[in-house]
């Protein structure tokens, strides 16, 4: 009888999600943030357009208490020309968060991608000197961090500076070519000067792979030993149904935490494709079940390591639109999140909130 009543409620109120708790009572409008209130904030990456959609807005406010701008604060979009900033999109996200009492993670201040071409070039089109590039980085960070001081509690300061090649520590980006690894230390110094209260993150993917994990550890230890104000590491967590293993995730979390750093899961999604899969495939019940089990496993792991983890953020809101729909294969539909294309909770959602 209870099941029938709930089914009718879902038909009458499609935007209202009902979950049965351990005591058999309907949990009403309870969301992810409520289930994890005793563990860590739960966030989502957003765009201004997403926040203007009433259905998406309602879903965000029900389930999340932290926002990350997906692209609006990256260097290219927010600082397209040397003497011009574009604040509208970033302001819209921060204003929404302020209005609704949500935390904001700033993303990001220095990255080898989406760096505008002018940042590296002089008036004649040649590459600038190390000194000029670092001064431009300083002014950029001062402007962006300074604008949102007191409104953004944490920043991804440097993003993806570690190489994927096992015989290198640093990515051979233009930043590295012109500045060596000094730009990493300087970025953290500038961000701390601009907002001494902000929690400063190094953010990276592949952080659970044992070989890359150890290179990331070496970078972080070097920064700490040099006195850099790095407070935390962001594990991007673009994972799939089998990789990385749960043991690798746990080992990585504990290794980084041993440096005295906070740990956050900053860009979580669960890709249905393996690394070598090229062809599109249907989201079958079998794949859905594997994804459901995988999400349940990793959130159990997060709960077990709550002494280290200070936040979990999903990278996009629902299967309606995900960056994975165009990466690494353009136009190939992925189904990596907890909510489906109709913004309804999937089985994976239940595996995350049932504990």
Architecture overview:
By secondary structure, this protein is α/β, with parallel strands linked by helices. It folds into two domains: 30 residues, no CATH class; 323 residues, Glycosidases (TIM Barrel), CATH 3.20.20.80. It is built from 13 helices and nine strands. Strands 1-2-3-4-5-6-8-9 form an eight-stranded parallel barrel, surrounded by five helices. α10 links the parallel β5 and β6. The longest helix has 20 residues. It is globular and about 55 Å long. 41% of the residues are buried.
The low-pLDDT segments are 1-27
CATH topology of the largest domain: TIM Barrel
**The top level CATH class name of the largest domain:** Alpha Beta
On the 0 to 100 scale, the average pLDDT is: 93
State the CATH architecture of the largest domain.
Alpha-Beta Barrel
Give the radius of gyration.
Answer: 21 Å
- The coarse overall form would be globular
How many H/I helices? 13
Strand order of the largest sheet: 1-2-3-4-5-6-8-9
Major sheet: 8 strands, parallel, barrel
Overall helicity: 25-40%
Key terms for this structure?
single chain, 355 residues, alpha/beta, TIM Barrel, eight-stranded parallel beta barrel, 13 helices, 15% strand, disordered N terminus
């Amino acid at each position: 009888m209870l099941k029938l009543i709930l089914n009718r409620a879902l038909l009458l109120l499609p935007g209202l999600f009902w979950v049965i708790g351990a005591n058999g009572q309907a949990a009403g409008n309870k969301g992810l943030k409520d289930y994890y209130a005793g563990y860590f904030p739960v966030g989502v990456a957003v765009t201004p357009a997403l926040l203007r959609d009433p259905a998406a807005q309602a879903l965000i406010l029900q389930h999340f208490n932290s926002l990350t701008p997906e692209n609006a604060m990256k260097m290219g979009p927010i600082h397209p020309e040397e003497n011009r900033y574009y604040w509208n999109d970033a302001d819209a996200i921060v204003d929404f968060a302020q209005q609704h009492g949500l935390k904001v993670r700033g993303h990001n201040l220095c990255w080898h991608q989406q760096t505008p071409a002018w940042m590296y070039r002089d008036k004649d089109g040649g590459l600038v000197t190390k000194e000029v590039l670092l001064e431009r980085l300083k002014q950029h960070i001062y402007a962006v961090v300074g604008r949102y001081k007191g409104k953004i509690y944490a920043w991804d300061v440097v993003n993806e500076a570690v190489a994927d090649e096992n015989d290198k520590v640093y990515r051979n980006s233009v930043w590295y070519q012109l500045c060596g690894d000094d730009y990493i230390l300087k970025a953290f110094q500038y961000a701390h000067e601009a907002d001494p209260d902000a929690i400063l993150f190094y953010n990276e993917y592949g952080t659970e792979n044992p070989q890359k994990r150890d290179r990331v550890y070496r970078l972080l230890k070097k920064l700490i030993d040099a006195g850099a104000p790095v407070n935390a590491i962001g594990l991007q967590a673009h994972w799939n149904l089998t990789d990385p293993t749960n043991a690798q995730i746990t080992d990585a979390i504990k290794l980084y935490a041993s440096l005295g750093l906070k740990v956050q899961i900053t860009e979580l999604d669960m890709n249905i494709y393996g690394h070598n899969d090229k062809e599109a495939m249907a989201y079958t019940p079998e794949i859905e079940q594997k994804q459901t089990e995988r999400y349940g496993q990793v959130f159990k792991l997060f709960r077990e390591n709550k002494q280290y983890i200070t936040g979990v953020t999903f990278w996009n809101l629902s299967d309606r639109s995900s960056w994975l729909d165009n990466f690494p294969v353009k136009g190939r539909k992925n189904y990596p999140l907890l909510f489906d294309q109709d913004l309804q909770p999937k089985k994976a959602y239940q595996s995350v909130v049932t504990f």
